[in-house]
Design goal:
This protein has six helices and seven strands, in the order βαβαααβββαβαβ. It is globular. The protein has one domain: Gcn5-related N-acetyltransferase (GNAT) (Aminopeptidase). By secondary structure, it is α+β, with helices and mostly antiparallel strands. Strand 3 and strand 4 form a beta hairpin. The relative contact order is 0.22.
């Protein structure tokens, strides 16, 4: 039996206790319906390399941090974003991090979107850690195209599920995931 120490539990009024937890069954997901989004984005000049494609260098990690920080500013109740050192420790150092699982959206040389997916092999699931697009590029299907590539990444690694967690007021992210076929779920405790 695993016990959680009291100081690790979020306060009773913390949004995480009301979070919308979504899950996609990767065995039954049919990506054919969503391929036009990816095609349109590519035709409009958006490229989708991974961090691995770009080298996962210190400079790329700094650029990813800045992009993530800007996109996360819209998340309700997000609070202060990590410092760069905290970001590396929390997002890029854990064993589930794989630079192939960080899909980027580039418009020419500008980083305009990201979809970070980590693997939890012991649970046969991947976790959508963050999907975000800069405000000036929203409404073009970029987020959905990146999520489609993230689904492909999770599948190629033998995962059965893709999970996501959202603030209940983050209607755009919840709506996009539901459109893809994510359903509510409660994790086992």
């Amino acid at each position: 039996m695993v016990t959680v120490e009291a100081h690790l539990e979020p306060p009773a009024d913390h949004w995480i206790r009301r979070a919308v937890r979504l899950q996609l069954d990767l065995r039954t997901f049919d990506d054919a319906r969503f391929l036009p989004y990816l095609r349109r984005c590519r035709q409009s000049g958006i490229d989708f390399p991974t961090m691995a494609d770009l080298g996962d260098t210190a400079g790329c990690r700094r650029a990813l941090y800045e992009l993530n920080k800007t996109c996360a500013a819209d998340i309700p109740d997000r609070g202060e974003f990590y410092t760069f050192a905290e970001y590396v420790q929390q997002r890029l150092a854990p064993p589930g991090y794989d630079p192939h699982g960080v899909i980027l959206a580039l418009s020419k040389d500008d980083w305009v979107g990201m979809a970070a997916t980590s693997l939890r092999r012991d649970e046969s699931c991947a976790v959508s850690d963050m999907t975000g697009v800069l405000p000036g590029y929203r409404g073009r299907g970029i987020s959905l195209a990146m999520k489609l590539l993230a689904i492909g990444y999770a599948r190629s690694n033998g995962m059965r599920w893709l999970n996501s967690l959202h603030h209940p007021a983050n209607a755009a992210a919840i709506g996009m995931n539901r459109r893809l076929g994510f359903v509510d779920y409660e994790p086992l405790r």
